[in-house]
Amino acid sequence: MMKEMKIFSGNANPEMAKDICRYLNVPLSEAEVRRFCDGEIFVEIGENVRGRDIFLIQPTCPPVNDHLMELVIMVDALRRASARRITAVMPYYGYARQDRKVAPRVPITAKVVAEMLMVVGVRRVLTMDLHAGQIQGFFNIPVDNLFAAKVLLQYISAQFKNDIVMVSPDAGGVERTRAFAKRMSSGLAIIDKRRERANESEAMNVIGDVRGKTAILLDDMVDTAGTLCAAANILMKAGAKEVHACCSHGVLSGPAIGRIEESQIKSLVITNTIPLGESARQCKKIKVLSVSELLGEAIQRIHSEDSVSSLFV
After folding, report:
1. Which of these is catalytic: 150, 193, 241, 285?
2. b/e burial code for range 208-245 (CB count within 10 A of at least 16 → b)
3. 3-state secondary structure string, the chain?
4. Side-chain half-sphere of 290: how many Cα atoms within 13 Å?
5. What's the pLDDT score for residue 198?
6. What per-residue confidence (pLDDT) applies to 196?
7. Looking only at Cα atoms, what is the longest distance across the chain?
């Protein structure tokens, strides 16, 4: 059955695609994805895909619109070339934060992206740590939402032995943080904050005991790092011994790297769902863990019609 599977990649994260192919022991299939002088995207599939089970690896990370259009156009090319089934492997799902109406006359863009993918021909989606689980309901096709928890927990267990407390930087992440705290048999704390506008937040106070403990902030993504850095400052003021952070997706846009360098955060652990920019690679506080094997195992099970449920633990 492995002969029927082909794996393609856009330009968003080719290194992850190569890692996944190494795990599966299959070659990365050929596709040309380039731009015309005016910026339009051109795609040409370089091999026969008729009747094949296709997995297209393309996180919609910055520049989000470019990578989303690459994904959509590649899916159309594969569908017109008579692929049997196309699975969009999106380790990072862009626009996920726009998952509901927060004010009058605003869009639900996460739903728009889902509609685009379904209309163009995607028949299954494999993603990781969606910002909001209900985004799965925006699709009328199967969605497998994996979690980086397994990889992050292994790292936390190896690095931090005693006196740790898992901290949620906001109320929305409490369920995720509680699950980590339970697995680590550690304490739980929550940062009470107020968000005045997008990408800006003000940490207010700590709910829970962090005095004399190693605080580990946990979030699904770090974008401009305003939330994490403000949370780290208030944790230190509350008596934490040191502060570390773990996030699934390192978006790291705008002033993020500068903020992290100057913050009380001792280390930031992220996964390779999004490739690091040059400044992020030079930041000594940032450590990247690979989730390529986890995604590769999910791809193998989806292709062979085996259960994926055990990977959700």
Report:
1. 193
2. bebeebbbbbbbbbbbbbbbbbbbbebbbebebbbbbb
3. CHHHEEEEECCCCHHHHHHHHHHHCCCECCEEEEECCCCCEEEEECCCCCCCEEEEECCCCCCHHHHHHHHHHHHHHHHHCCCCEEEEEECCCCCCCCCCCCCCCCCCHHHHHHHHHHHHCCCEEEEECCCCHHHHHHCCCCEEEECCHHHHHHHHHHHCCCCEEEEECCHHHHHHHHHHHHHHCCEEEEEEEEEEECCEEEEEEEECCCCCCEEEEEEEEECCCHHHHHHHHHHHHCCCCEEEEEEEEECCCCCHHHHHHHCCEEEEEEECCCCCCHHHHHCCCEEEECCHHHHHHHHHHHHCCCCCHHHHC
4. 11
5. 61
6. 59
7. 61
- Return the sign of the alpha-carbon dihedral for residues 127, 132, 133, 135: negative
Residue pLDDT, tens place only, 171-183: 888 999 999 999 9
**Residues 36-56: pLDDT tens digits?**
999 999 999 999 999 999 999
Q: Which of 117, 119, 173 is nearest to 143 (CA)?
A: 117
Could you tell me the pTM of the whole model? Answer: 0.93
Predicted pLDDT at 205:
86
In tens, the pLDDT along 55-89 reads 999 999 999 999 999 999 999 999 999 999 999 99
Catalytic residue at 266?
Answer: no
Q: What is the pLDDT of residues 185-231, one digit of tens each?
A: 999 999 987 655 665 556 478 999 999 999 999 999 999 999 899 99
73 burial via Cβ count (<10 Å: 0-12, 13-18, 19+): middle
Tokens coding 307 = 């259960």
Say how many Å lie between the first and final Cα of the chain, rounded.
26
pLDDT at 1: 47
Query: What residue has token string 């094997």?
Result: 293
Predicted local distance difference test score (pLDDT) of residue 192: 86
